Amino acid sequence: MVVKTFSFIFFTLALVGLGQSKSFEWDYSGLNSNEVLSSNIANEIGNANQSESAEQLTPKDQLLYFTLIAFRDISQSYVDRAANISHSILNDDDLKPNDSPLIKEFLKNITEFMERYEKYEEIDELFNLVDLYSNTTSHYFELDAALASPDVLNIERKLKKYGSDDLDREFEKEFLRFVDRFYEQMDEYKGKLSEEELKKEMAMLQWLEEFKPIENTEEKIISFEKFFRFYED
Questions:
Q1: Cα radius of gyration rounded to whole Å, the chain
Q2: pTM for the whole structure
Q3: In this predicted model, what pLDDT tens digit does every residue of 104-154 receive, in sequence order?
Q4: CB 23 within 8 A of CB 60
Q5: Are 171 and 3 in contact (CB under 8 A)?
């Protein structure tokens, strides 16, 4: 359930907790989009520097902004691919019409995802979409096939046919690619700090050293929650 863990942590901390943080006062309007996001993250930060005052976008805030943009882009890519998969599932003649309550519920959730995807605009809804699709699909890949019902196996086959299992794996890879870029951003951030400022950031730097050796992706995402805590006042 890597995707669900990711969406839960980012939605609850970044959008709720950080929205009230005094150290991060600029709003999230620049992060809202329902279009495919292809712009370079560095350019995003550069544009923010032009539009925000130095007090509003300090080096530490730039690090957070980089993270928010990256998480948004990972989620955007996920829901765009999920929409393509959902479209294929809803047009699969083998699943309709169907009298199975389980398959009816599954198709109902997929339909809800598509309806919300087609009209969403705000970033909080983007993360709701990640959560909705993940809740609807991911658990089918964790079931024991020997104990699963024919309807469950049918849904699992369709999800695999249209690439939903690949989507979950790609999500993990995208997060790990982000982590590599995050390390680079952290190195740049540390290079901008004075000795006194480095002392003030000792807790964050200690967390980073504990974060790096974690190999399990879900555990790594859970640990990343602590990064957002360093922006709470």
A1: 20
A2: 0.78
A3: 999 999 999 999 999 998 877 888 899 899 989 988 887 777 778 999 999
A4: yes
A5: yes
